[in-house]
Amino acid sequence: MSPRLLLILTPLFLTPLAHAAFDCAHASDQATMNQCASQENKAADKELNTVYQQIIARLKDNPDSKKLLVSAQKAWIGFRDAECKFSASGVEGGSVYPLILNNCITGITKVRTEALKQYLKCEEGDMSCPVPGA
Question: How many CA atoms lie within 13 A of 98 on its CB side?
């Protein structure tokens, strides 16, 4: 392997080791806190996407409702991102900015996930629920 290629690939080899080294429960420096907030954000986003896909699957026979959900989700993402940029704007450019931004995104994402989960609990005959039961 050429030295140049090895140099380029080094971050890929070391990234898993760096992630394993984070102790988020005892994070004491800003870089670690930022990384932990980013990881929590990714976990919240993954859960949201799982619930969202479950709803999409239930709407497979109703393209109009599916289209409305997709539209609502896109609008929600726009709101979330704008709200969190505003929320973190007081520390923009600072080392704490990623932490504040990611914490905001995570919090709003968790609220949205819980709202979507409620659609999965709709009972048969509930006319106010747009998602059919399983």
Answer: 13
Spatial CA neighbour of 76 closest among 108, 37, 50: 108
Residue 79 contacts residue 104 (beta carbons within 8 Å): no
Residue 40 amino acid letter: E
What backbone phi and psi angles, to 5 degrees, belong to 125? 90, -5
Count the alpha carbons within 13 Å of 45 in the hemisphere toward its beta carbon: 13
Nearest to residue 40, comparing CAs of 26, 21, 52, 24? 24
Question: What is 36-118's CATH number, 3.40.50.2000, 1.20.1270.180, 1.10.1160.10, 3.30.1540.10?
Answer: 1.20.1270.180
Tell me: the pLDDT tens digits for 12-49? 555 554 444 578 999 999 999 999 999 999 999 999 99
Rounded to whole angstroms, the Cα distance separating 69 from 119 reads 11
